[in-house]
UniProtKB/TrEMBL annotation:
<dbReference type="Pfam" id="PF00078">
    <property type="entry name" value="RVT_1"/>
</dbReference>
<dbReference type="InterPro" id="IPR000477">
    <property type="entry name" value="RT_dom"/>
</dbReference>
<dbReference type="InterPro" id="IPR043128">
    <property type="entry name" value="Rev_trsase/Diguanyl_cyclase"/>
</dbReference>
<dbReference type="InterPro" id="IPR052055">
    <property type="entry name" value="Hepadnavirus_pol/RT"/>
</dbReference>
<feature type="domain" description="Reverse transcriptase">
    <location>
        <begin position="71"/>
        <end position="254"/>
    </location>
</feature>
<dbReference type="InterPro" id="IPR043502">
    <property type="entry name" value="DNA/RNA_pol_sf"/>
</dbReference>
<protein>
    <submittedName>
        <fullName>Putative Transposon Tf2-9 polyprotein</fullName>
    </submittedName>
</protein>
Length: 465
């Protein structure tokens, strides 16, 4: 297996895949799923200058990476290419340069697929206090999956008047994450059946959890052998084989003894630098690309695991981005509005403080049940073995247009009136019961539609201040 070409590694272990009912997935490879039967003809007729162009240093780096992929069998040289895709080089945060395939043209003509990745929140749900963890990593993960002969001609690239196509699944195709996750999930289900262990993966990163340090160490070595026997090539330099209760995963530092998580120091430093740059740009009302502001919004969204309330300070940012996309589309530019300064400064303050996220669900003996209709609103509060009931009519100051707004307004009024009694014990949580699922969801996530945003914001500050 050491010198075997990447796309053939899983197929060469077909006997092992048959034992876990995964042979069909491996044999069929990646098939094209076009939006219509006319797509192949349309792509064949499309002409674009897709050969890589760059300065001498970039061409040398590109040629080096191309030769490496040829030797690994990830791509092959061929004259039979129907469509040639753009490629470019990107420098990663660790200094390494990556060759990226731009499949935007064929992606627009490929059927969409919904995929839900397991992130930090899903890890929190299975994590228990005192758990030990080990982490594994799959090398060049996507390239293990074979591209079918029907799709290969559409995954072509050009370099110095030579044509190549991908034999192993490339990263740039829109269905790649879904198909890789679907293939790896077969192996993970087999691991869970064979070993009593908790497993989660995010793309090519696998985390193993167990209460016993010694048992986890033994099982980790056994699981490594199991994955290698299936043909997966693992990145041993990124392994954490020694079980730990303090570990980094998805740029979060988890502490299972105290059940806390916060962003890693490099991530915090990087976000502080980026936000300070955006604050300076906003003060100067610079003109920026819409894609750039979408990028920083995406990075801030990633912080929602540690700071669920961060959505409250992203409203102006999201509004400015959305309006710009409607007017100028994604390739356009926008002039930064100083109205987003408060948002950026508050988010920067949260990052500087870097307060840890409590991974345990709170338990409260204080229960507040709210209800409302078009004429009145009411609340029932249970605490200290007492039941308090209150109700009142809406006054003329409330202009509520939906049941969601009325329900949230009832919660806000109850918090304002009974805040002193509810928070006198300084507990961290309050159990809210409501028959309005939208209100429950939005308060739990601190996210809301534009028409209800102000009510949610006031409810947050009423409870937390």
């Amino acid at each position: 297996m050491k010198n075997m070409l990447f796309p053939n590694r899983l197929k060469a272990r077909m006997t092992q895949w048959e034992q876990i009912q995964g042979e069909q997935m491996i044999l069929q490879g990646v098939q094209p799923l076009w939006t219509s039967n006319q797509v192949p003809k349309i792509l064949e007729q499309m002409k674009q200058s897709s050969a890589f162009k760059g300065i001498k240093i970039e061409e040398e780096e590109y040629s080096k990476q191309l030769l490496e992929k040829l030797n690994l069998g990830i791509i092959k040289e061929t004259d039979h290419i129907i469509f040639s895709n753009l490629t470019f080089l990107v420098r990663r945060s660790d200094g390494l340069v990556m060759k990226i395939l731009n499949c935007s043209q064929i992606n627009s003509m490929t059927q969409n697929v919904h995929i839900k990745m397991d992130g930090p929140e899903e890890l929190r749900q299975i994590l228990e206090q005192g758990d030990y963890a080990t982490i594994l990593d799959i090398k060049d993960a996507f390239h293990h999956i074979i591209v079918s002969e029907q799709l290969q001609p559409f995954l072509g690239i050009q370099f110095k008047k030579r044509n190549f196509c991908y034999l192993g699944l490339p990263f740039g195709w829109k269905r790649s994450p879904y198909l890789f996750r679907k293939t790896l999930a077969i192996a993970i289900r087999a691991i869970i059946r064979k070993w009593i262990i908790k497993v989660q993966h995010y793309m090519d990163d696998l985390i193993l959890l167990h209460k016993s340090k010694e048992q986890l160490k033994i099982m980790t070595l056994q699981i490594i052998d199991f994955l290698q026997n299936l043909g997966w090539k693992l990145e041993k330099q990124k392994f954490i084989i020694l079980p730990k209760t303090s570990f980094q995963y998805l740029e979060q530092q988890f502490e299972t003894l105290t059940m806390e998580a916060r962003m890693t120091k490099p991530r915090r430093r990087d976000m502080k630098i980026k936000l300070k740059q955006w604050i300076d740009k906003t003060y100067a009302t610079n003109i920026v690309k819409i894609k750039d502001i979408a990028s920083i919004v995406g990075e801030i969204n990633f912080l929602r695991f540690q700071f669920p309330q961060i959505s409250l300070w992203m409203n102006a940012l999201n509004n400015q981005k959305t309006k710009a996309v409607i007017l100028r589309r994604w390739d356009g530019q926008l002039k930064l509005n100083k109205r987003i300064l408060g948002n950026l400064q508050m988010i920067l303050k949260l990052i500087k403080n870097n307060e840890p996220r409590d991974l345990l669900d709170g338990i409260s003996d204080r229960i507040m049940t709210s209800d409302s209709c078009e004429e009145v609103c009411g609340v029932t509060i249970q605490m200290n073995n007492q039941i308090i009931m209150d109700a009142s009519e809406w006054n003329h100051g409330w202009h509520l247009k939906s049941s969601n707004q009325r329900e949230l307004a009832a919660v806000l009024i109850s918090l304002r009136i009974w805040k002193t009694s509810l928070l006198d014990q300084r507990k961290d949580c309050l159990l809210l019961r409501t028959d309005n699922t939208t209100t429950e969801y939005c308060i739990r996530r601190w996210r809301a539609a534009q028409q209800s945003f102000t009510l949610y914001e006031k409810s947050f500050f009423c409870y937390n201040c």
